[in-house]
Every structure is written in C-alpha cells, then in structure tokens.
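Entry type: protein chain
Record version: 2
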Amino acid sequence: MGLRPAHPFLRRVPHSRGLRRLRRLTRRDPVQLLKQLPEQEQRARLLELLRADLQSNEEIADETWQMPSLTADGRTADLPGFNFQTRVCDLQILQGVSGEAMENLTKTCRLLFPLDGSSWMPCTADPRCLAERLAQEVFEFHAKGFAFDPKRSGAEWWVQIRDSGHSEEGIQFHWDTDEVAVERHGVNVHPHLSTVTYLTECGAPTLILQCRNSLRPSETAQVYGSLAGGTLSWPKLWKHLAFDGQLLHGTVPKALAKRLGDLPHRFTFSAFQAMPRWSPVSCHAGRFRTRFGRRRLLHEISCRLPHRSGDTTAGTLQLHWASKDAMLGPVEKGRKREMVSAGGGEKKGCLKGEIH
C-alpha cells in the first residue's frame, strides 16, 4: 500500500465526492467516527457512501480554475534553486508514529481507495487526521525556503492499495498531469514535485525514468528515443521518495519482477541520501517491457533491469543505460509476442508488461 501526497504548487482540486459526504457528518477524523458506531452500522454507512459515489454522475467543476501561465520549461512557477533530484527524504512526522495512529492511517487509506479520487490539503488548513498531517508535512518539507502563493498552494494526495502478486498490482506508467488542463486546453501541466510514501515493506518496486513529458499530449512522439537513466525503488515502511513531477514513472509488478530481488530488511534512511549506481554492464540484467497510455496503449517502454539488488542495502538504485539499452517509443504494430497483463493503476488506460 502506498500513500502518495503529491503535487505542491498545483491548483485546488475538489475532494472525492464520498469523502466530502463523510466530512459533512463530522469535523472529526472519519475513522474515529466510524469506530464509535456498531459494526452493522459501520458497514451500512460505508456502503451508503460508496453507493452514492458510484451512482452519481455529477462532475464537480472548479469554476475558479484558470489555465496557469507556464515558464519556458513548462513549470507553473519559477523557483530558482528548487531541488528536482530524485531522492529519499527523512520526514519528521514519520518519527515515533504510534501503533494506533498507524492502524487509523491504514483504515483511512482503505476507506479512501475505493472512492477513486484524490484529496486536496491546502497549505494553510489545519489537518484533521494523520493522512492530512502527512500531506501537509510533505508540502512544508519540500516548499521550505521558497516563495509561493499560500491561497493557491498545497498538496494533492491519494492512496494506492495493491495486493502483492495480484494481477492488478501494477500501477500504469504515466506522467502526473492536471487532467482539466489536458481536457480543456490540450496542455500538460505538471506538479513541481511528485512523491511516494510507502506504508508497507511489500509490493512492487517503483521505477522512475529520466524522461520528461512533452508540452502537449499530441506531441509525445517528441520524447521518444533512448532513456539514459532512472531510479528503481523497493518499498520500505515510511520510506519517502521524491522526484521531478515531469518524469515518467510507474511500477514493475512483482509477479513480473520477482527476479529483481527483495528489499533488504535493515536500513535507515537520511535526508537526500545518495543512491548506489547500477548499469547493465555491472551485473546481470533482464529485459522489462511495458505498454501504457491515457486511453489506449500507444507507448512502449523497453529497458534492462537488475535481477537483484546486489550488494546495496539501500533498496533504491540509480540506473544508467547505454544507447538502446532502454527505449521509449510507439507500440510496435503487429508484434505477436503475448504480454502478461499487470492491471491498471490509473483511471484511464491500462498496463501490460513482461520481463525475461
């Protein structure tokens, strides 16, 4: 299971409909409210929320949203000195979290995940639960020392829950984009920073590729070609991974990547930790291939990944490829080799992948 508080410096986006309904009932932590009810009533309340969310065709429009002006490199703000480096960080909120707080956070994630939506934590708001505290901590940690408009800044966050080895364990490769900007204006607007915070030590590793998106979805072919490098990150409890919001990323399903090895059990992370380097010439490698797209499988990634984590104890590797060892391109027409389905992690599109 992964909690992803993300996207500092983006517009305000609505909470998922089910979560807003729950909050109208109380200003307290929704998990605490449900725990006070009899078990049957808890189930009835959750089913009511989910049924209303699934049956409603209402689209929540943000009437105040306007297309932001972008810098020359496609960013929503010019922040000299901002750290876009892929790195593992140490968040203070993660120190000394009690078992009960962790249990409540897990329940909150399980409640939110079926609602299929994201939540917005304004940087000026008071958090009402540990999940919102974590989202706010992420924003404050990465935005510290930089000037921004507090009325329009914060963290958009959502949760992902995946059963290890399940057919839908994989999260489709994608670029984080503002869907309203894409649909209304045909422009890719990205967060300044994207993050992944792991809440367990099992599941698929995250793969971040050094491949920035094009300005417009119709121009994706402009970024086709060789991939010079990336980062492969195995889950570890409370591990917080941050990277440039313009980078292509997804997961390598464990069912497909079982030869990549497991995360070592003992390791402590410090802020901005340097990561070990890896290249196909330094150890044995397997070929990973996957297709992705917003609505159709239009793009294909092919790269070599390590069979195991080697001697490193970090659980996070910097990958470096020679020319044509890693490629991004269009889906090959007529390619008959069957690809193993790995499920879809996004609301749009789907994912297929293989490793050999």
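Comment: The chain has two domains: 2-12+84-355, 17-55.
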